[in-house]
Specification:
7 helices; disordered N terminus; three-stranded mixed β-sheet; mainly alpha; three-stranded antiparallel β-sheet
C-alpha cells in the first residue's frame, strides 16, 4: 500500500519560512522597479520643463532634487542587484531543498518497500508459527494422554510392588540355596581345572599329529598335480570338453590353469553336470564328460562342501534325484544301471543318470 509523504513538522515550517522570504524578496524587487520607473518619469518631466520660467532658487532646488533622485535611483539599483543576488540564492536553496526532498522521497519509498516485504515475511512467519502452535497443542494433548497412561501404570506398579515384596522374600530363600549350589560348583570347577590341564596335554599331542598331517597334505598336493594331468588328458579326448574349457587339443597344463577351469572350477563342474543331463540320450558322447566330472569332483568335494548322491543298482527310482536317457521319465521302478552319480550343493540337486526297470501297474 502506497502512502503520500508527509514531511516532518520542522521541515514543513522551514519550507513555509523560505516561501515567505522568497515572496517578500519578489515583492520588494517589483516595488523597487516600479519606483525606479516613477522616478525616471518624474526626472524626465522635470527636465522637460522650460528652464527659462524658473528662477535661480527653483533651479537650484530642482538640481538638488535631481541629484537626490539620481542618488536614490543608484541606491535602488544597488538594492535591486542585492535582491537579485538574494533571489538567486533563494532559488539555489529551493533547488537544493527540492533535491533533498526528492532524495527523502526515494529513501521513504525504499523504506516503505522494505516495510511491505517485512509485513509479508511477518505474515508468513505468523502462519508458520500458527502451524507450529497447532502441532504443539496436538503434542500437548498427546502428552497429557501419555501422562494419564503413566499415572495409570504407576498405580498398577504400586499394586505390583506389594506382590514383588512377597516374591523378594521367596527369592532370598532361593539365594541361600544358590549359595550352597555355588559351593558345590566351585568343587566341580577345581575338578574341571584338572581336566583342563589334561586337555592341554592332549592338545600338545594333537599339535604333533597336526604337523604329521600337514606333511601328508603336501604329499596330497603332489597327487592333485597328477589329477590335473588326468583332467587335461580327458579334456583332449572330447570336443565338448575342449569347447567348455575354451582350450584346444594341443593345450598344456599352463593353458589348463588359464582356462575356465583355472578361473572357476565349481562353475565348470556345474556346467559339465548340466551337459551330462542335456546330452543324456547320447551315452557315448557323455562318457568323457562323466569321466572328467569324476576326476574333478574329489578336488572340490571338501573345499566347496559338495555331497555326492548315493545311488546303487536295485534302489527305487526317485524322480527328484534320478533321470534316465529316455523320455518321458518314469515315475517308479528299480535302478538297473548307474551311468552317473549326481551331487548336491546346498539346496540344489544335480540328478544322477540311471537306467530303470519299469514297474507295470
Amino acid at each position: 500500500m502506497e502512502e503520500l509523504y508527509t514531511p516532518p513538522e520542522g521541515e514543513e515550517m522551514g519550507k513555509g519560512k523560505k516561501k515567505e522570504k522568497e515572496s517578500k524578496i519578489f515583492g520588494c524587487i517589483e516595488a523597487l522597479e516600479k519606483r525606479i520607473v516613477a522616478l525616471e518619469a518624474f526626472k524626465e518631466s522635470q527636465e522637460s520643463r522650460p528652464k527659462e520660467s524658473l528662477d535661480a532658487t527653483q533651479l537650484e532646488t530642482l538640481k538638488t532634487e535631481n541629484a537626490t533622485l539620481t542618488k536614490e535611483k543608484a541606491d535602488l539599483e544597488d538594492k535591486i542587484k542585492a535582491l537579485e543576488s538574494a533571489k538567486q540564492g533563494v532559488e539555489g536553496e529551493k533547488e537544493r531543498l527540492q533535491e533533498a526532498f526528492n532524495k527523502k522521497i526515494d529513501e521513504l519509498q525504499k523504506v516503505q518497500a522494505k516495510l511491505e516485504h517485512s509485513e509479508q515475511q511477518a505474515q508468513q512467519d505468523n502462519a508458520t508459527l500458527q502451524g507450529k502452535l497447532d502441532r504443539q497443542r496436538t503434542d500437548n494433548d498427546n502428552l497429557e494422554q501419555k501422562l494419564k497412561d503413566v499415572q495409570s501404570n504407576l498405580r498398577r506398579a504400586q499394586e505390583d510392588g506389594a506382590k514383588w515384596q512377597s516374591k523378594s522374600k521367596e527369592l532370598d530363600t532361593e539365594l541361600d540355596d544358590l549359595k550352597q549350589e555355588k559351593k558345590r560348583l566351585e568343587g566341580e570347577l577345581s575338578t574341571a581345572k584338572t581336566d583342563c590341564q589334561n586337555l592341554e596335554d592332549k592338545c600338545s599331542q594333537l599339535e604333533g599329529e597336526l604337523k604329521e598331517a600337514q606333511a601328508d597334505q603336501k604329499e596330497a598336493k603332489g597327487y592333485q598335480s597328477l589329477a590335473l594331468v588326468q583332467l587335461l588328458n580327458l579334456a583332449q579326448q572330447s570336443d565338448q570338453l575342449l569347447k567348455r574349457l575354451e582350450i584346444d587339443k594341443n593345450a598344456t597344463l599352463d593353458d589348463l590353469f588359464a582356462s575356465k577351469l583355472g578361473q572357476d572350477r565349481l562353475f565348470v563342474l556345474k556346467c559339465i553336470a548340466q551337459d551330462i543331463q542335456d546330452f543324456r540320450k547320447d551315452l557315448s558322447k557323455i562318457q568323457p564328460l562323466i569321466a572328467f566330472f569324476n576326476a574333478l569332483f574329489p578336488l572340490l568335494e571338501s573345499s566347496e562342501k559338495l555331497t555326492r548322491l548315493s545311488v546303487c543298482e536295485g534302489d527305487n527310482y526317485n524322480p527328484r534325484e534320478h533321470a534316465t536317457p529316455e523320455d518321458p521319465q518314469p515315475t517308479r521302478g528299480k535302478v538297473t544301471k548307474v551311468h552317473f552319480a549326481g551331487y548336491q550343493l546346498g539346496s540344489n540337486t544335480y540328478k544322477s543318470l540311471v537306467e530303470v526297470q519299469k514297474t507295470h501297474v
